[in-house]
Amino acid sequence: MQAADFIDDIDIVVRSGNGGRGSVHFRHEKYIPFGGPDGGDGGKGGDVVFVCKKDLSTLYHLRKSSRRFFASDGGDGSGEKMKGKNGESVFIPVPVGTCIMDKSTSEIIYEMLTPGEEFIILKGGRGGLGNVHFKSSINQAPRYAQPGEEGVEMILHLELRLLADIGLVGFPNVGKSSFLSVVSSAKPTIADYEFTTLIPQLGIVNHKSRSFVVADFPGIINGAHLGKGLGIHFLKHLHHVKCLCYMLSAESDPYKAFLQLKEEVSLFDRGLLNKASVVFVNKRDLINDDDEERIRDSFRKEGIAPLFISSLTREGIDEALDFLLEVVVSN
Length: 331
Prior knowledge:
CATH superfamily of the largest domain: P-loop containing nucleotide triphosphate hydrolases
Distance between the termini: 31 Å
CATH architecture of the largest domain: 3-Layer(aba) Sandwich
Structural class: alpha/beta
Number of strands: 14
Strand content: 15-25%
Number of helices: 5
CATH class of the largest domain: Alpha Beta
CATH topology of the largest domain: Rossmann fold
Strand order of the largest sheet: 10-11-9-12-13-14
Radius of gyration: 29 Å
Shape: rod-shaped
């Protein structure tokens, strides 16, 4: 998938169908010149329905459409108590993890989390009652029928939040993609420059007869919560992960980078700090034992014992997977 094809948020307009009008009609039979009312009811308007599809991974297919999803109106009633045809509903396929929000208020209406589930966001208008329903002893020939109930129109903001057990959080070029390629079958683009990862990468890790999903998000930079770099577009995906894995590089100052990452995450959504978290220091092969001990000392003041790994030499990888599996199982 190209970066341009990964669309994780989009605005669309939806409208449910109007209900059909009830009919004002009277029986016309050969030997009954003054027949009673027999106007039928109007049909119900179509609904607007979201469908959760596991074979979709982006909202790109909606970008290619008109972004307007209108259900059809119900048909009008007719004589002989004939009910109007119900309007056809419109079905909108979305990936697992799609968050449906009211564009005007930013309120979350619903989250599509289960493959195959359907959610009716707007119900079609009810059809109006025909005049047959308004006959009474006082009014034997009612010339009134109900109009159909109008449908509803909304502007929605759809936001895809990827579902993963572990979310890799780190600055560019710390080795997140390399780690993912080592522990899973994912094949992310890897190079020695910033922002190699332009779209999220998901990898399924199989370890000790269990499996879990690890997500590599594009690197965060200072000011990401304000929209700088690529991070702001992907921080929202952290809402659904079970554990944040802070990936740091032994080349620079891992402790300083850790504090900066925590600050960016906190400024975006402080609630994310309540999630389980682990700290990995990658590129262990580039430092000596004294460097490692110095780094460990800096983390002790936070009560954190970082795990040192090397995606290149695979040092500490098995221990890292043991740790992640334990976190996934316990959360």
